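Subject: for your reference before the review

Hello V.,

The reviewers asked for a structural picture of the protein, and I figured it would be easier to keep everything in one thread rather than splitting it across files. Below is the amino acid sequence we used in the manuscript, unchanged from the supplementary table.
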Amino acid sequence: MLLKSDGSTSGPQQANAQAQQAQIAAQQAQAAAQQAQGQLEETRKELAERDAETRRLRILNELNRIAATRSDPRGLIVTLSGGILFDTGKTALKPGAKATLKRIAEALKVSLVDLATDIEMGED
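And here is what came back from the structure prediction:
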């Protein structure tokens, strides 16, 4: 082993120490990268949830302009009274009902491009 004038050593021990320091630095960098990746994934998840909630609220607002709409664990429920759609005892849609249903369909078509949609109908 050679002793330099500044008191440090040279040769294999110094190279070994530098290699260990480099390995430690690489491990720390890898751990930091993994942590950053985890934070990025969490942020993406939060943004996707916020985006979905924003879309849901936008759809709710749009549908509320057309008919009574409320949120339910199953999704959004749009309620149209029977008098709006049909004459009593009749099965044919009223002329105004077609326009209302078309507006609802357009709102859903624009708003639900990438969301799953189920449509249920019932009688009161």
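For the response letter, the relevant points are probably these. The first strand starts at residue 2 and ends at 3. The chain has a mean pLDDT of 81.

Happy to draft the paragraph if you're swamped.

O.
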